[in-house]
Amino acid sequence: MPGGATLAEGIAVARPGILTTALLRDRLADLALVSEGAIEDAVNSLIEVERIVVEGAGAASLAALQSDPERFRGRRVGLVLTGSNIDQRVLAEIIARGLVRGGRVSTLRLLLDDAPGRLAQILAVVATTGANLLEVQHERRSAEAPVREVVVTITVETLDADHLSDVRAALEQSGAHLV
Fold first, then answer.
1. Residues 6+ apart with CB under 8 A from 105
2. pLDDT of amino acid 144
3. Per-residue pLDDT, 142
4. Which helix (H) or strand (E) element contains residue 105?
5. Does position 5 have pLDDT exceeding 50, yes or no?
6. Residues 14 and 91 placed together within one structural domain of the fold
7. Are residues 33 and 96 in the same domain?
8. Which residue in 35, 48, 65, 122 has the most C-beta neighbors within 10 A?
9. Is residue 55 pLDDT above 90, yes or no?
10. 81, 95, 105, 82: which is closest to 41 by C-alpha?
């Protein structure tokens, strides 16, 4: 990202150095550019699959591979994974966003009848699906809900995107309206 923030701070230069340019001039066959999202996904993949922490610049090679696997198919590929100089808050955000993108943590907004025991019924539905309830917010005075209805926001942890779909289906089957 020219002039902007990047996860790949270690390789974000305005202009390659003289020595680097000289070394690569005759040796570099190709160059791949990757998006911030691809770098984020690569950092997260390395944590999740390999159990290693690598800074954004160090994960750029994996980001290139994951972004364009056809480019590398049938070839021997070596990835250089370097550096673990990554801010803890940035790392925590990458992990949290990876869980959301993978359908493993999701926030759902439901419109329910405002009746005694209805929230308990909804929470029981979530429990029967095997999802883990992380957070609940019950909004009786929401402008979003008609009188005698409430908005309930739940954050759930699921196994994957398919499990999340099962949770959604079970909630809808119970009479909850996802908004």
1. 96, 99, 134, 155, 156, 157, 158
2. 82
3. 81
4. strand 105-113
5. yes
6. yes
7. yes
8. 122
9. yes
10. 95
Model's pTM, two decimal places? 0.76
AA identity, residue 12: A
DSSP state letters, 110-154: EEEE--TTHHHHHHHHHHHHTPEEEEEEEETT-TTS-TTEEEEEE
Please indicate, yes or no, if residue 2 is contained in any of the structural domains.
no
Query: Is the CB of residue 99 less than 8 Å from the CB of residue 41?
Result: no
Q: Which amino acid is at 63?
A: A
Number of domains the chain contains: 2
Same structural domain, 91 and 132: no
The count of other CB atoms within 10 Å of the CB of residue 62 is 22
Full residue range of the structural domain in which residue 174 is found: 102-178
Q: Which two tokens stand for residue 172?
A: 């809808």
For residue 11, give Cα distances in angstroms to 8, 90, 147.
Answer: 6, 17, 56
Q: Distance (Å, rounded) from C-alpha 63 to C-alpha 1? A: 15
> Would you say residue 171 lies in a domain?
yes
> Which of 84, 100, 116 marks a domain boundary?
100
Give a yes or no: residue 140 inside a domain: yes
